[in-house]
Amino acid sequence: MGKRQILYSKNKTLSVTHLPKEPDWSDLPPELISLISRKLIDIFDFVRLRAICKTWRSAVQTSDLAPQLPWIMEYSDQSFEKGYMRFYSLLTGKIHDVNFPQVIQKFITGSAYKYLFSYDMQTRECSLVNPLTKEEISLPPAPANIWYPICVPPDLSSRYVVTTDLLFCKLGDLEWTRMQEESFPHYRIDRPGLKKFYDGLLFYDGLCYASDRGTGSTVVINIATQTVIFVVPRPKSELREQFAYLIVSAGEILRVCQYNKRYQQEPSYFDIYRLQLGNRDGKVINPCWIKIDNISHRFLFLLHREHGCAFRVDDFPEFIGNSIYFLINRNINEGYKLFRYNMKDRKIEALQVPVELDSSWFIPSLCKQSSNYRS
């Protein structure tokens, strides 16, 4: 029976009515709750929905979270020394302070998709950290100061981590291994005494793709066997690109070449190439880059010299397709600015954000790895 309410009329006559029973939100169909959860673009709204009651929490899995755009760390953010981190959400435009005591006195950089790279410069301890779930995956202690970026598969499926200096480890290993560079037929030293570095590291379909900074070639490596599967020559172009990004988009591997203005760090324009592979008797032949002028309903984010990612306008209608969003640091004493490059008219537009940005970023996720990688 519903609640009783006593009402008094002007002539003091007493009347009693029965109000409708309050709805029990836990009785809503689980499939409806799951559908609603997939429409929530703000990750904190998603978390609040799951916290309503046990029934809703059971109906909505962490994997139901709608596609997310990167969160970028705020520039000159020393907040992690106090146990929290500050990020700017590209999707919502909000600034988030995330408590994370594990990062105190650590060097934090990105990106490793849903993880950031944490490095203790005193103990040389390394780990992958998810600021939202507080998950921390231990890596072997660094053999030397690691300031260069790392690369991991988006879902850690291959369980390998690789640096641009061709150090690698498998999750659970106790030490890093240096890849035997002399086994690479293309290998050369740009200047004696300097280490070899690779740009544009990418994991895809069990292989690691690395853009050789010296030759411009893309080396495709089986990390497990430390062997080169094939080498893709540098795309033919009148100019030499400043930076090369390797990105997976709609099942294709793209090479995004950034050409800077002369004597400046600011881009003048971008070119995009698609990897084309020939096949003979199950072996790759004649690998090459084919220039494309249109990425249609897709847009790219270039968030670091070696890292980028692709998204669909269908998932993020607020963003413009056939465009490249990127960060530029015009002054070493200032943070990064956000820009958009239109592939059609080849023009660059500055975008307004409320804070200065760093180059470290991660893609928000509430999923955790189920395995314990320590052997």
Automatic annotation (TrEMBL):
Residues 25-63 form the F-box domain. PANTHER family: OS07G0183000 PROTEIN-RELATED. InterPro entries: F-box-like_dom_sf, F-box_BR-signaling, F-box_dom, KIB1-4_b-propeller. Residues 87-331 form the KIB1-4 beta-propeller domain. It comes from Rhynchospora pubera. This is F-box family protein. It holds the Pfam family Beta-prop_KIB1-4. It comes from the Eukaryota. The lineage of its organism: Eukaryota, Viridiplantae, Streptophyta, Embryophyta, Tracheophyta.
